[in-house]
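Trying the structure run again after the queue cleared.
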Amino acid sequence: MTTAGCVPGKVKTVSVKREGRKWFVVLTAEQAQPEPLPGTGSTVGIDMGIANFLTDSNGEFVPNPRHGQKAAANLETAQQDLARFGRVRRDKRTKNHQRAVKRVATVHRKVRRQRLDHAHKTALDLVRHHDFIAHEDLKIRNMSKTVAPKPDPETPGSFLLNGAAAKTGLNRSIQDAGWGVFLTILTSKAESAGREVIAVDPRNTSRQCPECGHTAKENRPTQEKFHCVLCGHSAHADTVGAINVLRAGLVRRNANQAQREAPSFIRGRSHDLVDVFLGHGPARPAARVR
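Done. Tokens:
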């Protein structure tokens, strides 16, 4: 097998894997540092969401494709067919059982590829058009945790309503959106293209007014609407969040640059500057020089 002219760089490893009836050859190649893309002078902040996959600070929306939700009916049918067969060893499965397993795997594989394709295309569009990209530092694992049960103190052995059904639906939507996969791909593409990506604390980004700086939960009366109770500024809540993410990202970038140039006794305080910008609390006092 020759890879001359097909794979750039020097091939280091070759592996073969199988997915269903298809076989794939995976090559790992050592390449020179890629040339960075030409600068655009553009900066952008992005706000990840469920109704829209992301919203940027320019007011543009990327719709959520909801690949898992669209395939839910086909997956349910395939899983019901598979459930008719008992749990047996792989070498003991009948032909019908094997076909049922393959149908479930095919649906999962298609959704995974669709999600990856959407993530790659969305990330590539951002990297091509912007030199600097700021996004929320989302703790996705914590966001998709299940709700703890609430025992009923009046009736031992029974439980109170805790919103578990709604939280389960939200968790499913978060996993279907694939934020973690997208952000990983975005970071990788940005590094190859010579772009800068910074993650910022998402607290209060959708509650702080970009016009007057007032921060309050009342500023967001609905999921989509932002209306500042102090100055009256109104906008889409996700756009407001993206604007504040961009501003916090620029503050952190400038703080990081200043930190690299600052004396050692005041280094490590870039997080404090962003916390002050977003209203998370006062910065810690500077270290005393002795």
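Helices lie at 67-70, 72-83, 95-129, 140-143, 164-177, 179-193, 237-261, 270-277. Worth checking whether this holds up in the mutant runs.
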